[in-house]
């Protein structure tokens, strides 16, 4: 089906890309504006992949004439005052629009926002079969979609002050009408409070998808609009169930057989996930590497063809660490740069790593040891050594010419100083067809994609990719590398987002620039800029692009930062070598010089997280009062002396309804004695040793080297 996908919620003046799905590059596609607000002059272009920018608030209907028929897409436009509220610098589109000479986006990028940020919303679906008296008088069952809007944490509004806008998916309207059913939009009813939408089950073909946003109007300001949420209701008897662990049976025993799915929820298994990143070419043997788009620093080959086998040999040790997800940097044929992101063949594995059978055997070994595997998917560019680019460069008549972006200088489009790559032109149907074929080639082998440079690829492609893989496997993970992160990327695109804000803040703390308590501000920012509560975040202190944390900040701070990513709400990630005290960023891992104490600490931390769900993404995070004393228990100073300062320490609470835990992190090189504003136990769950001491005035304090996790005994 070439339909362009789910409805869009935009600001006036905000541009969205429109593209036919599952495209045939040889076919014809034509766009038109079917319906628009009276004062609108917005239009679409003549190309198969085009852009649309609403110019006044209201509802738009965009038509697509495609080989499989005529399709309609609904776009709801809101006043533009909230545009760019998610991150400083605006949206993913604004980031993509930078020129090649612009400075790189750094982890230190500001993430502030103007005024009060976006509200949030959650949609849930049920079937009303009449058992509770809620169905119509004729007893016919209805699909019920309920919205729960939440004001921004900084807002003065109450939940009842928010309004909700629902949109039924155009694809499901099309399917229902084609089957001779009542148009679901014509049959729906909305409750008086605007929070509930009802659709007769008889108006549902094989599937009904409903999308919705919360709208907040602060006094004296135009509206702020949430990231959209979405639910789907599938007829099980239609053979179209797109279930998994995230789906649930709905309706009573006499109701039609339906299944419901919350479309933007991450896979259920990610709630407990922990990730281990492998830089494949130096994990077992080899030498260093260059930057993302260039540099040399060694060929990284090691023993040619044996890398997959060498990684497989270490799978048991990785699993014993306590992680459950393996992210491998690119494994495809490349241009010789050891990072592997400059790809020359998207359908074959790199010769220096092994062959296709070796790769599949590695994935199977990981699965046998309880590890899921993430494929590093590169959709922004090819290497300049790719056959397309070699034919197109300096050849305007090449059939591959329009598959790349070009600068006026005649050089390919690229970002920053990455001179060995060329940006793909995602407005080309050939490029989109090619990338979807790449997805189809590798997705069946793995458990998810880590999507490289996600910010540089149009949203319409990511939305199509998500629907494509999730319709086959709801538990397939999509994780974006977007720096700075963008709340809108959780709207029908990604499940887990790189948390560069937390990364940067942990670096600032380790450098002594910011207080340890600022780590809690980094977590709070997720909701403040508009991420919905069901979004998840990858938490890390280092990766293959960054200097090792302990090199920059020291061993003591590294221990506390490592504990932070495990005890704060999110998905912790360990970069290979981090668990043994490795100091080289992309050097061969010095297994023979492993610092066993570092590994043991990570093993204990991950085990405690696994044993105590309150430390996971579902656990609440609360601030608590705390006071730091120096190493001398006879002292009770306002400002600590010696090697421990109050700003080196932070304490917080994690709770999940079953258990409440107090976590204390100490980034200083010496132990800290910390009094917290909560009654607590005396044993550190991480070390399984007593951790409470009594100061000169008889007050109990938690003695902490790098991390202490103790049970709260009373609240």
Share of residues in strands: 25-35%
Using DSSP, what is the number of strands? 39
Helices and strands: which structural class? Answer: alpha+beta
Task: Report the major sheet.
Answer: 8 strands, parallel, barrel
Figure out the total of helices: 15
Please, what is the average pLDDT? 88
Q: What is the 3D shape? A: globular
Helical content class: 10-25%
Q: Strand order, biggest sheet?
A: 17-18-21-24-25-26-27-28
Radius of gyration: 27 Å
How far apart, in Å, are the first and last alpha carbons?
Answer: 55 Å
Poorly predicted parts: 82-91, 107-113, 238-253, 286-302, 635-641
Can you tag this structure with a few keywords?
715 residues, 15 helices, alpha+beta, 39 strands, 8-stranded parallel beta barrel, globular, 6-stranded antiparallel beta sheet
Brief sketch in words of this structure:
This protein has 715 residues and is of the alpha+beta class. The chain has 15 helices and 39 strands.
Draw up the topology in text:
Blueprint lengths: L7 E4 L4 E3 L11 E6 L14 E3 L5 E9 L2 E10 L13 H5 L23 E9 L13 E9 L12 E6 L1 H9 L5 H4 L1 E2 L5 E5 L6 E10 L7 E2 L3 E7 L11 E4 L7 E5 L12 E4 L1 H4 L23 H7 L1 H7 L3 E4 L3 E3 L8 E7 L6 H13 L3 E7 L2 E3 L3 H6 L28 E3 L5 H14 L5 E5 L6 H12 L6 E4 L15 E3 L1 H12 L6 H11 L7 E4 L9 H5 L1 H13 L3 E5 L20 H16 L8 E4 L2 E4 L19 E7 L4 E7 L5 E5 L2 E2 L2 E2 L4 E2 L1 E3 L5 E5 L2 E8 L1
Parallel strand pairs: 1-6, 17-18, 17-28, 18-21, 21-24, 24-25, 25-26, 26-27, 27-28
Antiparallel strand pairs: 2-4, 3-5, 5-6, 7-8, 8-11, 9-12, 10-11, 12-13, 12-14, 14-16, 15-16, 19-20, 22-23, 29-31, 30-33, 31-32, 32-39, 33-38, 34-39, 35-36, 37-38
Helix pairs in contact: 5-7, 11-12, 11-14, 14-15
